[in-house]
Structures are given as structure tokens and as C-alpha cells.
Design goal:
single chain; 7 helices; mainly alpha
């Protein structure tokens, strides 16, 4: 599920629902949390890398023509602008934020960013976001 979410193909069950549910189901001890976070980061990063690679290989016009790609040209242009202005640093920043998660994956691919650099930055931002989700879940469990 994380892989599909990372590739922006799974809109109906985002990390915001999966990670808290996994924490509740798997457990809250450190080993269980590390397992949940590891799976979440690995899956989402692999999914984002697949989308990044598709953007690199297909190019903007062919990607926009794909039915499974649900971002319109105007929205993509806005995120292209962010990538042009701030460079690769926006990849982990966008992955750390609720409403922009993964949105800089395609501009990074279109800009032909180095694969390893993308993977590292994508994983870093995803780890940050998933840790925050797990922390909020633990806080709410402790407060209940």
C-alpha cells in the first residue's frame, strides 16, 4: 500500500490513515514502531522512485497524457516552479508536509535529478513525515 501511495496511485488510503492504523495493530514498543516506519519509508520511497523514473523516461507531455497520472498541467507547473526556485532541497521538505507529499517527485524526474540523490532525499522527507504520524498516534494513545 505504501508503494502505491508513494507512486501517487493510492489516493483513498494515504499514510495519514495507514501509519496510525499500523501502530495500533502492530504495537507501540520501539521494535514494532521501527518495523512500521521501515515498511512505510521503504514502500513510499520505492513508489516515489517509480514515479520519478516514469517522469524521467516519459517526459512532461507523455506523462500528462497518462490516465493514471492525476495532476493537471497547471498544478505541475506550480511544483516545477518550486523545484526550479529551490532545487533538490524541496524534495524532502515537500515529503515532510501534509498537502505536498510527493508532489516534487515529478519535477525532480523531469529535471533529471541524480537517482541516488533523489532516493536519499525522498526517503529522508518520508521518514520525517512518517515519524511525525507515529508520534502523534502515540501521543493520542497516551492521552486516551
Amino acid at each position: 500500500m505504501f508503494l502505491l501511495e508513494g507512486a501517487m496511485l493510492l489516493y483513498f488510503v494515504p499514510s495519514e490513515g495507514i501509519v496510525p492504523a499500523a501502530v495500533l495493530l502492530v504495537g507501540t514498543d520501539p521494535v514494532d514502531l521501527a518495523l512500521v516506519l521501515g515498511v512505510a519509508v521503504l514502500g513510499a520511497t520505492v513508489g516515489q522512485f517509480a514515479l520519478f523514473t516514469a517522469a524521467k523516461r516519459l517526459g512532461r507531455e507523455r506523462l500528462l497524457a497518462k490516465r493514471w497520472f492525476r495532476i493537471d498541467d497547471d498544478k505541475l507547473a506550480r511544483f516545477d516552479g518550486w523545484f526550479d526556485r529551490w532545487g533538490p532541497v524541496v524534495v524532502p521538505v515537500s515529503n515532510s508536509l501534509l498537502f505536498t507529499r510527493g508532489m516534487l517527485t515529478v519535477p525532480a524526474g523531469l529535471a533529471e535529478m541524480d537517482d541516488r540523490r533523489f532516493l536519499a532525499l525522498s526517503a529522508l522527507g518520508t521518514l520525517s513525515f512518517e515519524c511525525l504520524l507515529a508520534a502523534v498516534t502515540l501521543f493520542l494513545l497516551g492521552g486516551a
